[in-house]
Amino acid sequence: MAAVGRIARAHGIRGQVIVNLETDFPEERFQPGAELFVERNGTVQTLTVTSVRFQHDRPVLGIAGVETMNDAEALAGLELRVPIERLARLPEGTFYRHDLIGCRVETQGGDLVGTVEEVEGTLSGSRLVVAAERGEILIPLVAPICTTIDPAGKRIVVDPPEGLLNLNWVAG
What angle is formed at CA 158 by the lines to CA 156 and CA 161, rounded to 5 degrees? Predict the structure, then answer.
């Protein structure tokens, strides 16, 4: 399953929740009748959206069976997911974050940098979080640096500017 959002908090007294987005298609993903999935206490549960409106670009959702502020507060922090096969088809040259997780990152010369653990940021400014031998390395996800992205082959080739790989690594 792919993450599409995270419940930030309860909104109001009628059981609505505010969602922090992790999708570039919020109007398509969050509609009345949509099924979203959460994991609670080791069990995957289905949540059905009953109402939606957007406030400051974030969806405020009504969810079936969530009637009070206390019900809504119990959902805070949960990640909203959908099955991968329900995701929209993307244009050529664009990728879902989950497609990049686990990709081997190497330089144009073939030297191993590490493995993508996470993709952070937004559509307008994302970066790869790469697990390397010496710790975490942050690499901007931009075409001049990430010259080859091959999710099917689980490989990303980078041409980093001088010093980038040493500049922003975080000791693990």
Answer: 160
